[in-house]
């Protein structure tokens, strides 16, 4: 019996920034996936992680990201990466969220950037009021100083929604962020694209979402 559906934001309700990363790398002759590899290396304590927890400011992020990327083969400034985060809303995912909202509790757990960060108004914090209003509760990493995949952020959500994690579905586009939710007993969906995610969500909830 499903009680709640919990969503990631960027790469789930919006298109993934990975395409923009790839374009940037190609245009500048950078090694393939240098940005993603920099994000993934030491992913709990790297510049990206610290910035999403609001532990460092934008200048420190810019410098630390440059150092970390250079160690992997090419220097990329952190400030150059932030504008690449912009994603477009996926209307079919928003429609699915609206139909879910009519039947179940809804939550959003997002690793985002401090509100003063360059690009954060359009990146993974592309907070369209109409969409954010569809969530019963939103947890933002930059506001609470925790980020996925820290298990505490998932516990905070189920406690606030007052639901059993075994009765929850969680959607994210990153496998590393699905693991803690799955270990808590949630049904997890790795979002590759909208039709695939909606199909799995229909199977998990028994609802028609399109």
TrEMBL record:
Q: Which domain of life is it from?
A: Bacteria
- UniProt keyword Mitochondrion, yes or no: no
Matching InterPro entries: ACAD10-like, HAD-like_sf, HAD-SF_hydro_IA, HAD-SF_ppase_IA/epoxid_hydro_N, HAD_sf, PGP-like_dom2
GO MF annotation: an example? hydrolase activity
Q: Is this entry keyworded Transmembrane helix?
A: no
Q: Which UniProt keywords apply?
A: Acetylation, Hydrolase
Q: What Gene3D superfamilies does the entry give?
A: HAD superfamily/HAD-like (3.40.50.1000), Putative phosphatase, domain 2 (1.10.150.240)
- Which PANTHER family does this one have? HAD FAMILY PHOSPHATASE (PTHR47829:SF1), HYDROLASE, PUTATIVE (AFU_ORTHOLOGUE AFUA_1G12880)-RELATED (PTHR47829)
Q: What is this protein called?
A: HAD family hydrolase
UniProt source species: Bradyrhizobium macuxiense
């Amino acid at each position: 019996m499903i009680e709640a559906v919990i969503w990631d934001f960027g790469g789930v309700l919006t298109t993934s920034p990975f395409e923009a990363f790839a374009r940037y790398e190609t245009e500048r002759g950078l090694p393939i996936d240098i940005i993603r590899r920099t994000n993934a290396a030491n992913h709990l304590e790297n510049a990206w992680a610290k910035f999403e927890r609001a532990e460092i400011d934008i200048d420190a992020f810019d410098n630390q990201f440059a150092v970390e990327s250079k160690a992997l083969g090419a220097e990329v400034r952190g400030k150059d990466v932030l504008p690449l985060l912009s994603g477009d809303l996926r209307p079919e995912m928003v429609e699915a969220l609206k139909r879910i909202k009519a039947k179940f509790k809804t939550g959003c757990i997002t690793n985002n950037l401090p509100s003063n960060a360059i690009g954060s108004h359009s990146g993974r914090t592309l907070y369209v009021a109409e969409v954010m209003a569809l969530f019963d509760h939103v947890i933002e990493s930059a506001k609470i100083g925790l980020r996925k995949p820290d298990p505490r952020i998932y516990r905070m959500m189920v406690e606030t929604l007052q639901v059993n994690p075994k009765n929850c579905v969680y959607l994210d586009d990153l496998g590393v962020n699905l693991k803690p939710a799955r270990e808590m007993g949630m049904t997890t969906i790795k979002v590759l694209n909208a039709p695939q995610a909606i199909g799995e969500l229909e199977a998990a909830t028994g609802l028609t979402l399109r």
